[in-house]
Amino acid sequence: MTSLTSIWPLFSLRLSTPRLELRPLRDEDIPRYVDAALSGIHPPETMPFTFPWTDVPADELGRGTAEHVWRTRLLSRPGDWAIALGIWFEGELVGCQDMSAKNFAVRRTVSTGSWLKQAVQGRGLGNEMRTAVALYAFDHLHAVAAESDAAAWNAASLGVSASVGYVPNGVYCGEARRGEAVDMQRLRLTPGTFRRPYWALGVEGHDAVASFLELPSTPADVTPTPSPALSAEVTP
Ligand SMILES: CC(C)(COP(=O)(O)OP(=O)(O)OC[C@H]1O[C@@H](n2cnc3c(N)ncnc32)[C@H](O)[C@@H]1OP(=O)(O)O)[C@@H](O)C(=O)NCCC(=O)NCCS
Q1: Spatial contact of 40 and 118, defined as CB atoms under 8 Å apart
Q2: pTM exceeds 0.85 for this model
Q3: Most exposed: 39, 116, 133, 206, by fewest CB within 10 Å?
Q4: How far apart are alpha carbons 32 and 210 in whole angstroms?
Q5: Which CATH number does the domain 4-217 belong to among 3.40.630.30, 3.30.420.10, 3.40.190.10, 3.40.50.20?
């Protein structure tokens, strides 16, 4: 019989770290994902997400969440893609780590976003899951950069970024809730600043993903090209 992974090869992907397993959310995972979100991600008076999806009434969160997961699939094709990786810790789905790209063959850059249920925050898991996608992005996707952003007040998210090796990359004005402006900190990670962990990442299903997304099979040539202005300055 035809398998689901042959129809949607992204479901083959499985990343493992010392304590976590990361794998693309399947429909049967959505109720657990919603339960994790409903258990509480952040205090209600703060909004860490650019799209305030946790503000909706509890009985509407499930449908909105399912639509988000389905949308990430619909928008995934060679070049432009988004993968919502569920985070499994001690057999329980406890959060999500998104990884997405636009025109990846040219930009070789991934963007990430993440959350964990409050009950498991502050135990180093945020660092472990972001480190996992950075390892996958650099060592398997041949990315040259990973980008992220966070509200300037979000010490936990900025703490994860700093601990993984991201460097600040500018500030812009975002909107946390309707009518609520917030300074957003952009962050950028490159192989040169990445703090590699002591552990090795377990990866299953990458070949199927690479073929489906038509990923580049070789590292990018990132030799910097001197700009014409700079060349002119140093020419005698
Ligand atoms: C952001 C989030 C995923 C971080 O995960 P976490 O498991 O709590 O973070 P970790 O325990 O891995 O901490 C990683 C680093 O950040 C630091 N950190 C964590 N929380 C912090 C806080 N509140 N204040 C300051 N530093 C903090 C830790 O000290 C650690 O640094 P170290 O490795 O140098 O010791 C989690 O807190 C969360 O889901 N928050 C709500 C949703 C959210 O803000 N998502 C991000 C939207 S941009």
Answers
A1: yes
A2: yes
A3: 39
A4: 28
A5: 3.40.630.30
109 CB within 6 A, ligand 1: no
Task: Quote the DSSP letter at residue 218.
Answer: S
Question: Which residues, including other chains, have CB under 8 Å from residue 137's CB and lie 6 or more apart?
Answer: 99, 110, 143, 146
Q: Give tens-digit pLDDT for 41-56.
A: 999 999 999 999 999 9
Q: Of 7, 109, 118, which Cα lies nearest the Cα of 54?
A: 118
Instruction: Give dist(CA 171, CA 43) in Å, integer.
Output: 24
Write down the domain spans for the chain: 4-217
Q: Ligand 1 centre and the CA of 42: distance in Å?
A: 12
150 lines ligand 1 (CB under 6 A): yes
Tokens of 94: 């406890």
